[in-house]
Amino acid sequence: MFLRERSISLSPTSVVTDYAQVTKWLLRCPITDLAQGRQILLWVLQQEPVKSARRVTMFVRAMYRWASGEDVALLPRNPVANFRMPKPPQAAHEVTVIPRDEIPLVLIALEARKHSGANWASYAEFMLQTAMRTGEVRALTWDDLDGDRVLVHSNFTLTHGHKPSTKTNKKRWVPLNSRAKELIEELPRGGQYLFPWNRYTFQSYFRQKVDELHSAGLIRARYRPYDLRHVAISRWLEAGIPVAQAASWAGNTSEVIWKHYANTTTEYQMPVL
């Protein structure tokens, strides 16, 4: 009942993946009395990994708010209405970016093999040049191109395929730099999509090649495809692009850009003052 109502406002991916995870965790919870909401949340927060535990807690609190609403009234009161989330554990680096000297290594590793005509290095570098999300790149069609810019208005999810809206449900124009246009010129034409390749295969292959580079000691971390978006936005800011403009191109607010995307792409030395 809760999911049926929430599915109207949530993306299909959230319903399928996020709430599926919540269901799994709650089935594992030894506390079955829903009136003991605070004990349930405390149990969830003690589980690993920490980020997942905090995310599940957020969803469970939303479920309690819904169940205790007067128009639903499955519960007489909300037992977690005044529950205060503990501070997250201190993290060394909140935002992961791929250093400038490691980007070529990652792209070369992806170039090593083309699977079923797919060019994973091209896919990855287009993400880097535009800061577009993985699913947004996959959803791009030739009709979305308009000279020196591209209209980002849809997403290609792992669970539901092509979805006619972005993650934030806002359309945006993204300018194409010279390298992005070169990548487009190199793409084969004939189909509907610019990058008509399996997104899941791309992400799996990316992780495989990054793991190999990391195991060989050639890169500092096991990066994700999404980290390319972090790199692009961080480089924009380093190049002097105003944060408001970077946020517009990236499809986020300025606050989100500073909090979740901005970092340095070069290691600096502390100057003598």
Descriptive notes:
47% of the residues lie in helices and 6% in strands. By secondary structure, it is mainly alpha-helical. The strands form two sheets. A three-stranded antiparallel beta sheet has the order 1-2-5. It has a two-stranded antiparallel sheet with strand order 3-4. The longest helix is centred in the N-terminal third of the chain and has 18 residues, at 50-67. It is globular, with a radius of gyration of 21 Å.
Secondary-structure map:
Blueprint: H1 2-6, H2 12-28, H3 37-45, H4 50-67, H5 103-111, H6 120-130, H7 134-139, E1 145-146, E2 149-152, E3 155-157, E4 161-163, E5 172-175, H8 178-185, H9 199-215, H10 227-238, H11 243-250, H12 254-261
Antiparallel strand pairs: 1-2, 2-5, 3-4
Helix pairs in contact: 2-4, 3-4, 5-6, 5-9, 6-10, 11-12
What's a concise summary of this model?
It contains twelve helices and five strands. With about 270 residues, the chain is mainly alpha-helical. The protein is globular, with a radius of gyration of 21 Å.
